[in-house]
Amino acid sequence: MVVEEVFRELFDEREKRIRDAIELREPDRVPVICHGIGWYFKMVPGVTARDMVESNDKFMKVLLKFMLDIQPDAAWRPVPQDPLASVVVEPTPMIFPENGDNSCEPKIISRETMKVEDYKFVIENGYLATLMKFLPELRPGIPNVQKKLMDKLGLTSDPEEPPLDFTKNIEMLRQVGFPAYFLFEMLSPFNCLTLLRTYPKMCMDLKRHPDLVKQAIERMVPEMTSILIGMTKQCDLPRVCIGVHRESATFFSPKIFDEVFFPEIKSMVELCSKEDLKVILHCDGNWNPLLERLTELPKKRCVIQLDMDTDPFKAKEVIGDRYCIDAGPMELEMATWTPEEVEDYCKKLIDIVGDGGGFILKSEISREAKPENVRAFINVAKTYGVY
Amino acid sequence: MYFIGDKMKQQLYNAMVELEEEKVITLVKKALENGEDPYSILEVCRKAMSEVGDRFERGEYFLNELVIAGEIFKTVSEILNPELKKYGKRERELGRMVIGTVEGDVHDIGKNIARTMLEAHGFIVYDLGVDVPPEKFVEAVKKYNPEIVGMSCLITSAWTSIEETVKKLEKEKLRDKVRIILGGAMVNERIAEKVGADAWTNDAKKGVDICKSFVGAE
Question: Is B65 within 8 Å of A206 when comparing Cβ atoms?
């Protein structure tokens, strides 16, 4: 068998494993995925932390080495966090250190970019127009920043640099046998608004002007979902990822969830479902009190991706017959636990959450993650996770 | 000396606990107009903040409600401050604390909540902000002479900064003069032990209790 055929078979096998889990069928074994590649860029000589966000070529070099070495079932987000274009999926002010230190990544800053009176602008003009309005504050120090972003998004007829095209990244992965789990994570409209306003201001907005927030979200949902769908379809991927962090009970009460957040999430999931895309809901924070509410989303259309603040065992009980659950040891655990602790926790997840299928084992790999924990994590899925 | 009337006291307490912003502001202004002691007004608001914290602890309130209470408390403090100054320093001071999110990390929600809760319980809090380098913590300890240093951390890559800060405090012979508490989602028992902190928490109310125990105010 030629190498290309081996890789093609491996690709099909891995993709089927993930699809089976999402469709709540029992795959051959529990799929395993790494969120992030953490320290791994240091394994590739000549690549800096800054390269990992600025250079697609270097990012892909590191990612491919990681995939072939560590062998998870899919690549989490096979695109670098482009310093300019990332503003669309996460509108946080970001600045690069000016000392030329290539070991530094851009710094995220939390500040009030949008004022309460700007809700009207959002409602009238939509998300992209709002981004353009605030772009010089969100990405300071970049000349012609609006034109540059439009170029990158392929929205201009006379681009000075080529539009972003990640189809080649997907193809490079495919050639070595790996599917992409999703292309990138797009934060929900509410999360984006919260980043533009700051969390304390958003708390007050929802108390003082709930209708303005609701109207802004309603205006943003179709536009943002359409961007997400368009870029995902361009890469011929079957899944999208939507970040719903601030919607969790860590940040706001379930009452607000019912009134404001659930309609937003439901609309986005339904719009993606119409396009036959599965939605990975990246549910950071505590979703324990909200699990019951999630059952109103379309069955088998979502992956509920949890961090350690939500009890995955409870999630299995409440929503396990409707959606695939994606959970595992997170950043803190991968950095402080022993390999035995990682293995024991993953075995428990496989036994209970993985029972009957509908489970993807995931871990968060930060710079501080212990390499021996990453190996133990992958290994346990491949040995103990066999159905 | 005047004392805020019982009825108005109860109204203010209830309005604060129920997060009725406008009502709180109206009542505070009215109480001042009536010549009430601003310290008594502040004390009522602090007690209400403590109840908000308890409701949060019991799962009856969520973080947004804690933040709203904090914002209302901030507004009340702004209204009361000029009057408090006129009355001279008579504030109950449980202890002094220097707080900040460590270098490399810019998350501030948890830190701000902790600050609000600590202030509401009578601590004087010197907030150094986010992305605070070790030298700034050392400088602040020298300047404010606090009993407690609080370091917030929400990303594992900022652990080295916590460690560095503790080492710098040791080097300056300040470590024995302060108790160190870590806060945030990326700290646990093992990290506290590793970096040489005295305590850790990821819960603002528990943090207040720990800080109270540090200054002997159980």
Answer: no
